[in-house]
Amino acid sequence: MSHPQPTLLEWGSKLQIQSIGLRYEVLRKPLDLFFFPEELLSETTQIHVGMVAGERVLAVLLLKILDRNVAKMRQVAVAESCQGKGLGKQLVRFSEEICRDKQVKRIELHARKSAVNFYLSLGYRIQGHEFEEVGIPHIAMYLDL
Ligand SMILES: CC(C)(COP(=O)(O)OP(=O)(O)OC[C@H]1O[C@@H](n2cnc3c(N)ncnc32)[C@H](O)[C@@H]1OP(=O)(O)O)[C@@H](O)C(=O)NCCC(=O)NCCS
């Protein structure tokens, strides 16, 4: 397999559609949840970023630019067989560069509790208390760029 590279996934492209499958496998299926078509259609204006090797999307995340120079990072997923190999870190770092280029000053996210230490290791900070989303505990986190 060729070396995974961070890549922008154009909405509606083959790779972006493949990335929905990855998000489903990693983030939704374990919780017995699905995607709704309107949810996926609402993502046309979000930035889709992947780690891609050949024709395979191994990791994905979305950036939603909010107002106040803030971006929300969401749907961060690394294929199960590829976790713990640095792909998530590379993907997040690449996405931070995209945000800097767009004059974004802060990245916010809702971290699953199980992933909080991943974001802490990348310099993200905890903002507030634990809350529930998609039925599991989350913590709001942010990084000032
Ligand atoms: C959480 C996730 C995105 C991390 O991506 P990854 O590719 O597995 O992580 P990396 O290999 O890039 O790890 C980067 C660093 O974070 C640490 N790390 C990764 N996952 C961690 C975890 N769950 N808990 C603690 N530390 C973690 C690694 O040890 C590594 O530290 P190092 O740089 O000191 O070696 C990925 O494991 C995943 O998709 N998990 C399932 C879905 C999920 O929880 N998504 C996040 C939703 S908010």
| Shape, per Cα inertia axes | globular
Radius of gyration: 14 Å
- In the sheet with the most strands, the strands line up as 1-2-3-4-5-7-6
Strand content: 35-45%
Number of individual domains:
1
Question: Can you walk through the features of this model?
Answer:
- There is one protein chain.
- With 145 residues, the chain is α+β, with helices and mostly antiparallel strands.
- It has helices at 14-28, 37-41, 87-101, 116-121, and strands at 5-8, 47-53, 56-65, 70-78, 106-112, 125-133, 136-144.
- The protein has a single domain (5-106), classed as Aminopeptidase.
- The protein has 4 helices and 7 strands, in the order E-H-H-E-E-E-H-E-H-E-E.
- A 7-stranded mixed beta sheet has the order 1-2-3-4-5-7-6, sandwiched between helices.
- The longest helix is centred in the N-terminal third of the chain and has 15 residues, at 14-28.
- The structure holds coenzyme A.
- The site of coenzyme A has 19 residues, from helix 1, strand 4, helix 3, strand 5 and helix 4.
- Coenzyme A is lined by residues 26-27, 76-78, 83-89, 111-112, 114-115, 117-118, 121.
